[in-house]
Amino acid sequence: MALAACGRDPQAPPAAAVTLGSQNETPKPAPAAVSEEDILKGTYWPPAKLDGGSARISCEYDYPRFGDGDTLESLDFFSLVDAMSPCQQRGVVRVRYQGKIGAGFTALTQRVAAMAARMEIPTRILDIDSSGGHVEEALRAGDSIAESGWAIWVRENSVCHSACVLVLAAGDTRSIEGKVGIHRLMRDRSTATSRAELSRELRAINQQVRDYLERNGVATAVSDLMMTVANRDLRILTPDELKQYGLDGTNAAQDDLDRIRLARKCGDDFVRRRESFRRAFDAQCMGTGKSFESMPECAEQLQAQFGFPDKACPGESPADLYARDLPPPLLDEAAAGEGAAEPADGKPAGAAGKNEPPAKADKAAK
User: Fold this and answer.
1) Which of 60, 120, 130, 285 is the most exposed place for a label (fewest CB within 10 A)?
2) Alpha helix (H) ranges present in 174-267?
3) Beta partners for 98?
4) Residue 112 has what DSSP assignment?
5) String of b and e for 255-291 (b: at least 16 CB within 10 Å)?
6) Domains of the chain
7) For the chain, how big is the Rg over CA atoms in Å?
8) 183, 235 in Cβ contact below 8 A?
């Protein structure tokens, strides 16, 4: 019987179930995953929760005068439509976020940017106060922020510590009045049981952070400095260090990208003249005692010295940049010479330190 069993043919596998009309169908490949960006182009947004923090939406630069706006109760499509519709005319949306960096924060920045693009709101400000959070989410949020044109504020009495520094790195401009602190960035759920395992984890995180900082125009020395500070401690960066490492002011990577775009469109000579104009503007139009409402007029008077408006690229005139970034009510007041009461609202996005918080703007004007 044993020999008979050995010679028996192997049992055939069970036949696949066949439904009526399916005999001649070619198997269909699995559908490709839909990106978050494509999902947000529609009106059905999957559920997302702003856990670990709170967000308020404002259409104003001047938070001492106008406050931080209404609390955003939900991240669904129609909640953001309601919250951001008043910002369309102003052309400015400011998100005051206080809390941890997590999946909810990433969803917040992605969804506000998607709605701002849909509503054609060009100026987007992330007004942040965060002690840190998840490294992986900070990298995800930062990559999204880098592609969607955000200015980032850390205003007086606010902080940006730990993983928040990665978010700060991604802004087109960074305006800092509060404290920025760093330490070792740990994996969210470390499985290390020895120094060697912890070292391998930290090395992997450090490489991710270095690559991220490099593509955002920030010195990779920041990552090395982080590694010297224990996770339970904190090292506050000085204003000089923030400048030195590329964490304050204009993002160097974005500035280079803008120059490349302009050179491709308008030529190298245009870019050289524009840079000369910007240096002269900083010296003559942003000097002591200058109000921000006077900047468009000052830029208009100055630009002729550098051959602007340019015949080949009239739409890229630097003076126009300062004028169109001034909120509409202040444009009217500036033209009438009545704008001195609202210096913060008149802060142009194109100037050095664009979209600075009013506290910093007031100092510059004194």
Assistant:
1) 120
2) 195-215, 221-227, 239-244, 252-266
3) 54, 129
4) H
5) eeeeeeebeeebeeebbebbeebbeebeeebbeeebb
6) 37-250 (3.90.226.10), 253-365 (no CATH)
7) 26
8) yes
**Structure confidence by residue, pLDDT tens digits, 280-317:** 877 777 554 455 456 667 888 888 899 998 888 888 87
Task: Render pLDDT for 179-232 as a digit per residue (tens, 0 to 9).
Answer: 999 998 877 667 788 888 888 888 888 899 999 999 999 999 999 999 999 989
On whether the CB atoms of residues 64 and 58 are closer than 8 A, the answer is: no
Alpha-carbon gap, residue 17 to 118, rounded angstroms: 47
Q: Which of 175, 156, 348, 357 is nearest to 248 (CA)?
A: 175
83 class by beta-carbon count within 10 Å (0-12 exposed, 13-18 middle, 19+ buried): buried
CB 206 within 8 A of CB 227: yes
State which amino acid sits at residue 29.
P
Of all helices (H) and strands (E), which one includes residue 152? strand 150-154
Neighbours of 120 (CB within 10 A): 8
Rounded CA gap, 10 and 12, in Å?
6
In degrees and rounded to multiples of 5, residue 93 shows phi and psi of -130, 130
Report residue 67 as tokens: 């406050």
The CA distances from residue 257 to 97, 105, 262, 281, 316, in Å, are 28, 27, 9, 21, 15
DSSP annotation string for 235-248: EEPPHHHHHHTT-S
